[in-house]
Amino acid sequence: MYINYANKIQGSNFIQSKNIFIKIMTEFRRNHETRKGRSKRGFGGFIGRSVFFVVFLVILLFMLYRTVAHYSGESIDIETSPITTESGDRFFLPSGSKGQLVHHKHYSLSYNEKNEQADWVAYVLKRDELKMPNVPRAKRFKPDYDVKTQSAFHKDYSHSGYTRGHMAPAGDMAFSTEAMQESFFMSNMSPQLKECNSGIWKELEENVRDWAFDDKELIVVSGPLFTNPNPRKIGKNKVAVPDAFFKILLDVRKPEIKSIAFRIPNAKSSVHLKEFAVSIDEIETETGFDFFDLLLDDEEEEIIESQYDISKWKFSSKRFQDRLKHGNK
């Protein structure tokens, strides 16, 4: 797992470290040689070279430790995990969307101007975040001014019969005020019937948080699905109403790497959540997106995305019963 990716990171880090070392040594020699009254081969030069050699050795050992950590499955922060790089590159993002790629601090999205919503929203949900006290829920939905073509507005949904359905849930972003505020960008919304938003979609979100807590870290990708080529439009900005929604989950931690996807109709449902489980391949076929082509090599991608094992995902019976009693209203 991650062999190609880890080698790529290891190689780039090594080259970068080597270049930095060469630059430092070149500057050191230049300064040393221009000092009057000092021998180029003197004791000071020996000490200086020794110091820089030790620094370079420490850098190499650090790179080696981090690469080993990639393979060992340790609990590594997202900034140094195989999921992202130190520069913030997010290698878990889907490809294939023609929308504008927008990076917020806590999630990324691809904005589809035609539908006035994201084709997908992707982020990493971690146990450490879920353990933090929840900040107050945001109260205002805000336009996303990072969208060049302008996102939908709050009023587009008003009196439409549809709620503003989060693709990256506020509950997943409750660990900080900044993350919470980001989750209320209109680019993160999609028109959902109330019975879906407060019913089966909410139940799925709650189960995802349970799974992320149990598994330490999950990659989550959500978005709308359109089976009708001429979907209903709402608001002045003509926001398209999806027929269904997808949510894809990938657990990349060893020893039990696993995935599952869900296709949830934009409707009231009393059917058990398990009945909506599908493979990632099925969502890829419907959307035309390639979800983890940068994160997984071809062989791993074929195996992980073509199948799922429902027994590896523990569904909450209590949350299902809560939906049947209260959530479908």
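Second entry:
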Amino acid sequence: MNIYETDAAVSQYLLFHYGAPEERDPFQMLPNVAAFPSLCVQELPERGSLPANARALDLGCAVGRSTFELTRLCAEVIGLDSSAAFIRAAQALKETGIHPYTRMDEGALRTSLIARVPEQLDRTRVSFRVGDAMNVPADLGSFDLVVMANLIDRLPDPARCLQQLPALVRRGGQVVITSPCTWLEEFTPRDKWLGGFERNGRAFTTLDALKEILGRDFEFRFEQDVPFLIWEHRRKFQHSVAQASVWLRR
């Protein structure tokens, strides 16, 4: 069974995307750090180069927080994810602004919570769609900004996904990619890993691969470390640091 189609995964990601600091980080392990999806939008795109009527694609949007956050920068935003369960939750948030869920605390103990889209974000400018990040539908058109947050190391063929970007991104447009570079064979066959191995006698990293694949069509702008915390239960968390990179379409 696809783990991203389960109620447990939907609840975990609703907390990750929308939980208040005290709900997702009660031990204050990452004090003063915003929710990861909003942090990616607040800190990474180069705002000054986006046109007034910019279009954005949130590729691998999960339950949609970064999709909504992108309305701060763009006139139209599309969120695409392969999980129908994630998209149903995101669509419910678009329609009503809220979505109830339960947080797993200990054993059979649960806490009832409500995910809320910040009131200042214009939900009418957002649309969601189930789709394959390695085969982005052509009818979506082109974009001034594409965000790929913690997506590439969960794809069967991440290079295939990246090779679509020149056609998806308008001249002068941007791509924001984040990844904790957690390459696992349960998600990506080893011969499709972008990095995390030796090549020609030296360490070859995910960023090396991104520069190789994107370098002809995109200018590498900068990289940044972005920490995040995913709740498993009250006393167990995934603490990771995503490597973010920003690219400008030549």
